[in-house]
Amino acid sequence: MPKKKDFILIGVLLVIALVGLAVTRLLQHQSGASVTITVCGEVYGTYPLNQSREIEISDDKGYNKVVIENGSVHMEDADCPDQYCVQHAAIHSSHETIICLPHELVVEITGGEVSDVDVITQ
Ligand SMILES: [Zn+2]
Predict the structure, then answer these.
(1) How far is the CA of 62 from the centre of ligand 1 (A)?
(2) pLDDT above 60: residue 113
(3) What is the pLDDT of residues 19-52, one digit of tens each?
(4) Distance from residue 2's CA to the centre of ligand 1 (Å)
(5) Where are the beta strands (DSSP E) in 1-122?
């Protein structure tokens, strides 16, 4: 019964591969996620999502205060006229963004490996 054995082997390998992939993704999501702040199309800074901190950005266009807290990010303060970014709910999942249009500022959550590739291509 060589064929049946082959199918079992392939099945087992497939399960191992899928579990491995799932675990890798999970680990990336939990430990590799970071916050990338872009101002006027230029990366201002990248910060780990799991470390609380306050980032104040002040330039010609205005002032923004981004706060990373308990694994999520929100705009604590800004002097833009519309205040959309301040009213935006906190973000915590990969590829979610908070955009401050008047200041051309983007706060984005990036996954570990994905953000590395982004940095290289930029
Ligand atoms: Zn704003």
Answers:
(1) 9
(2) no
(3) 988 887 766 555 569 999 999 999 999 999 999 9
(4) 65
(5) 34-39, 42-48, 53-59, 62-69, 72-78, 97-100, 105-110
Tens digits of residue pLDDT in 67-103: 999 999 999 999 999 999 999 999 999 889 999 999 9
Copy the structure tokens of residue 46.
């990248």
Distance from the alpha carbon of residue 88 to the mean position of ligand 1, in angstroms: 9
For the domain spanning 33-121, the CATH number is 2.60.320.10
Domain ranges of the chain: 1-32, 33-121
How far is residue 108's CA from residue 82's CA, in Å, rounded to a whole number?
A: 20
User: Looking at residue 88, what DSSP letter applies?
Assistant: S
